[in-house]
Design a protein that fits this description.
Blueprint: E1 2-7, H1 19-26, E2 31-36, E3 49-51, E4 59-61, H2 63-73, E5 78-89, H3 92-98, E6 103-108, H4 116-122, E7 125-128, H5 138-151, H6 158-168, E8 182-183, E9 186-187, H7 197-215, H8 217-222
Parallel strand pairs: 1-2, 1-6, 5-6, 5-7
Antiparallel strand pairs: 3-4, 8-9
Helix pairs in contact: 2-4, 3-5
Bound molecules: ligand 4FN.
Length: 225
């Protein structure tokens, strides 16, 4: 998979150089390119934002730098996403769907957002990561990239694929413990030390189900599809 991220703030994306995603990039399992929208401004001061027609506070990202930036990376197989509070919510099902695309182009808004003509001309889908006010689409883009890359079969090691199954059946994770068995008098549930794999599986399933019913009954109802 290839991902082009269009942003005015390419330096924000340092987190995608770390850990699992960083390693996946180094091993060329995924190609993530940062495209600095400012470099496409034809203005002598590299201006990329302007006042909003009809009035109102704030600035909007201008169409010209965005049109040129998009056209510089767009291929026939590109799926173009604008991270936006107006979008469909990013769910694990959507993540799964996006992980099958060959090329993603992510557009990050800033200020009051982007000119509607960019959306009408190029955007295949608007996606939101949730209902809160943010200063830009950069963090949402990182959330999307992290979740989608984690789902790519080439990136999921054996340790991770098991974890992955857990969310696909829409349950929260059961409580987990590592060594030592007794830490400051805090002990590990006996069943986990029993070596009885059937009993352990039963306990874990029950813990998952109870926790999900209590904290996130919506996950059981919607099945999040
Ligand atoms: N946000 C709301 C209503 C109206 C505006 C905003 C808001 C960043 C460019 C968009 C926000 C949240 C989730 C992108 C929020 C997301 C953004 C996202 C986002 C600057 C314009 C803006 C939802 C609270 C009713 C600013 C709510 N997922 N505007 O945050 O880009 O992707």
């Amino acid at each position: 998979m290839k991902i082009d991220i269009l942003t005015l703030f390419p330096n924000s994306f340092v987190p995608l150089t770390e850990s699992i995603i960083g390693r996946a990039r180094e091993k060329n399992k995924v190609e993530i390119n940062l495209v600095d929208i400012r470099e496409f401004s034809l203005d002598k001061h590299k201006k990329c934002d302007d006042y909003i027609f009809g009035g109102g506070d704030g600035l909007l990202m201008m169409p010209q730098p965005l049109f040129d930036a998009i056209e510089s990376v767009k291929q026939d197989n590109s799926y173009i996403i604008y991270l936006s509070p107006k979008g469909n919510t990013l769910t694990q099902n959507k993540v799964q769907e996006l992980s099958t695309k060959e090329h993603l182009i992510l557009i990050c808004g800033h200020y009051e957002g982007i000119d509607q003509r960019v959306i009408d001309t190029f955007v295949d889908e608007e996606i939101s990561i949730g209902d809160y006010v943010l200063t830009g689409g950069e963090l949402p883009a990182m959330v999307l990239v992290d979740s989608v890359c984690r789902y790519l079969p080439e990136i999921l090691g054996n340790e991770n694929s098991a974890l992955n199954e857990t969310f696909t059946n829409n349950l929260l994770e059961y409580p987990q413990y590592t060594r030592p068995q007794n830490f400051r008098g805090l002990t590990v549930p006996e069943v986990l030390l029993s070596g009885n794999h059937q009993e352990i599986a039963k306990w874990r399933e029950q813990q998952s189900l109870e926790l999900t019913k209590k904290r996130r009954p919506d996950l059981l109802k919607n099945n999040n599809k």
